[in-house]
Every structure is written in C-alpha cells, then in structure tokens.
Design a protein that fits this description.
The protein is globular, with a radius of gyration of 22 Å. By secondary structure, the protein is an alpha/beta fold. It folds into 2 domains: about 30-60 and about 85-245, no CATH class; about 270-390, Rossmann fold (3-Layer(aba) Sandwich). It contains 11 helices and 25 strands. The mean pLDDT is about 90. Strands 4, 5, 10, 11, 12, 13, 15, 16, 17 and 18 form a 10-stranded mixed sheet that branches. A 7-stranded mixed sheet has the order 8-7-23-22-21-19-20, with helices on both faces. A two-stranded antiparallel ribbon has the order 1-2.
C-alpha cells in the first residue's frame, strides 16, 4: 500500500471548496501546458505516452418518443433519435497530473492538457445560454475569468505515490452530474480491472460518501479536490469522460450495495410520488395542485430528508413520478421499466437530460412546458393537462 497522502485542510462555501494553502499555491503557480487535446487526439499523436484499456464497445440505443405539452397546453411528440453511445475505457498516464476540482489531466512530458471539450470559450458560451440574463449575469464573467486563469497557470504541484484515479468532472457537486457522470466513471474503472490506490472525487456530501462506499471505495482512499488542486502521481487513471452506457449497470450495482438486493422485490410498483422542492421552481397555484394530488393519491416526498438507500427503495416502488425539472428526478434510474415520469419544464430551459435517462431505462416520459411566474422561477401547473396525462396512461403500455 502506498504511503499516506497528506491532504491540506479544505473549507466548503456552498458548492465551492478552497484549501487552506490556496494563497501559497497561487503565488508559486506554474505555466499551464501549451496545448489542449481530447483523449482521442492525444492517443493519435502520442501513442507511446499512455496505455488505453478498453472496457465496453460502443452500443446503440433505440429511438425514443415522449409527449411534450407546450405552454399554451398543446400536445406534440418529441423524438430522441437512435444513437450510438461511445465505448468506455480507462487511459493510464504515467507521471500525469490532475489539475483543479474539475479533473483536467496534464501530461508534462508532452506539455499537453487533456479535456473532454477543448474550446473553453464555447463552454462559456453554452453556460451563458443556460443561465438567466445570459452574458449580463455575473456568473458568466466569473466563468470566463476562471477559464482564462486555467489556460495560463496551474497551482503549486503536490506529489502522491501510487496510482490515482480521477473521477471528478464539471458539476460534480451536483446530484445529477454525480450520478450520471462521476459514478459511471467509477463503474468503468471497476470493470476495467485496473486497481487504484487513490480516488480523486468530491466527498463532502453524505450521498457522495454513501455512493462511493456502496460501490466498494474505501473512504480513507478518497482525495478531496479543490480550487487550487494540483497533484502528480506515479500513474493517473482516467476513465471515460462520457460513460453513458455505464449508467444502467452502475445503478444496479448502487442498489445492490445500498439495499443488499440483486434486484428490486417482486411486488408490483404502486406508489404515486411527487417530488417537493424547498425553494425555486415551486408551483404558484400550490393549493389547487395540492388538492389534485390528494385526490389522485400522490405522496409528497422531500428527498433531502431521506437517506440514499431510502430514495432508491422509494423509486423502485414508484408507478408514477411527478416533479419539476431538477436533480431529484435523477432517481428515475431506479424505477422499473414502464414507469411514467411527468416532468415540469420551466419555460426557456429545454434540457433533455431526463428524457435521455428514460430512454436508457425504458420509462414512459412526459414533459410539460410550464410558464414561469415571479423572480424565484415559480411555475404555473396546468391541472387539465395532468388530467389528460393520467387518463392516457391509466392503461398499461
């Protein structure tokens, strides 16, 4: 077993994590690599500088149709085409470095940085299109400044003996990105047969620690990255950044690790659940909507008050899942095939991440585009549309 790694003390401010040695790291910063490449480009240009372990070949998923209701309550059909999901693999980089909390990987011997997306300006432009007020939002300019700094400098490097797996990626503090991106990378690594001595991943939240432990990671082997993180190891293990095809088997492994079951029990799913939200994107016609839920037998659930295992068990027993677009809907990966998922999409968001999960898990999906009301992104829920949906899906598909 490699010698213990002396981690700096970290401090958490909301979704941000800083180390107590941040000032020293910035003062003694170094130049960033001159070039940024994708993994495929790096393998093509420098085939002898790394080793690629292929885990799963590319697979195709069938096309997927789901109902979509417009703001003026008109029904249409949306379509996700048949597509090929890329292969999963693990890249082994000798004497590599991990930079920042988002898990960029530097190869000093070739003066190259590896990223999923090379164009940081395009990434910032996408961010502007997904946030309120776009480029007028201060968060956009913070992202631009952060990207500029990452392109020019890296913090002071620390040394770690052994093999280090990088799991974190952009948005790893968020429940959806953790389940749909970070854990599939871990599952890919576990299936590759490559053994890691250390894992670079967020571990501040209880659901992060619970999921890592459920998949067999010893928590004392987890290294918490932060804003000025820069680590060099004997070997860096880089699982696929796009490990979509690992999501279904990872979900099964997670349920088994937390519930001790190979599969959900044989009872027929009967529960109708509504995912409550504490702050933004709350229905403005709350009384009318609440009366409708009581009439049809929905249970209101607050996922923040439930353990990870309780959430999995709940969604395994769900017949209908109702909720506003948000991280709580990620748990539909634990639903049985054929479960009805009704997603309220605040006008202007247009994010297909949960229909994509329904496509992977053979669920029935409906998106209701709801008008926004007020400063907190409140939404107007259409009761007549909900009645039509329940009537349409009351019979087995």
């Amino acid at each position: 077993m490699p010698e213990a790694f002396d981690q700096p003390r970290t401090i958490r401010f909301g979704k941000y994590i800083l180390a107590d040695n941040a000032i020293k790291c910035l003062i003694r910063s170094q130049r960033a690599p001159a070039r940024t490449l994708t993994i495929s480009e790096f393998r093509h240009e420098y085939p002898e500088s790394s080793r690629l372990v292929r885990v799963k070949e590319p697979v195709c998923v069938d096309s997927f149709c789901f109902d979509s209701w417009t703001e003026d309550e008109q029904l249409s059909v949306s379509h996700l085409p048949e597509k090929e999901i890329p292969e999963t693999s693990v890249l082994v980089v000798p004497s590599g470095r991990i930079v920042g909390r988002k898990g960029d990987v530097d190869v000093p011997v070739e003066d190259v940085r590896l990223r999923y997306s090379k164009d940081l300006s395009e990434e910032a432009g996408w961010f502007a299109r997904t946030i309120r007020f776009g480029k007028l939002n201060p968060r956009f300019w913070k992202r631009v400044a952060e990207n500029s700094l990452r392109q020019r400098f890296v913090p002071l490097v620390s040394q770690c003996s052994g093999r280090v797996a990088v799991l974190n990626c952009n948005g790893s503090h968020n429940y959806f990105h953790w389940i749909a991106e970070v854990l599939p990378r871990l599952w890919t690594l576990l299936q590759s047969g490559e053994q890691a001595d250390w894992y670079v991943a967020d571990c501040y939240s209880r659901w992060q620690r619970a999921s890592l432990a459920a998949l067999g990671v010893q928590l004392d082997r987890v290294i918490q990255p932060h804003a000025t993180f820069h680590l060099e190891a004997d070997e860096i293990l880089v699982p696929s950044l796009q490990a979509t095809q690992a999501i279904p088997p990872m979900a099964q492994g997670l349920a088994k690790g937390l519930l001790g079951l190979q599969d959900a029990n044989d009872s027929e799913p009967k529960r109708l659940i509504y995912i409550e939200r504490a702050h933004s994107r709350r229905p403005v016609n709350a009384d009318e909507f609440s009366a409708w839920r009581r009439k049809h037998g929905f249970d209101d659930v607050w996922l923040e008050d439930m353990s990870f295992a309780e959430q999995i068990a709940l969604f395994q027993q769900a017949k209908v899942v109702l909720g506003v677009h948000g991280a709580g809907l990620t748990n539909i990966i634990h639903c049985r095939p054929g479960t009805l998922v009704v997603e309220f999409m605040p006008a202007g968001l247009n994010r297909p991440c949960y229909p994509v999960l329904s496509q992977l898990f053979n669920l029935r999906h409906v998106v209701i585009n709801a008008p926004r009301v007020g400063r907190r992104h409140g939404i107007q829920v259409s009761i007549s549309v909900l009645d039509q949906i329940l009537e349409k899906f009351s019979e087995p598909s």
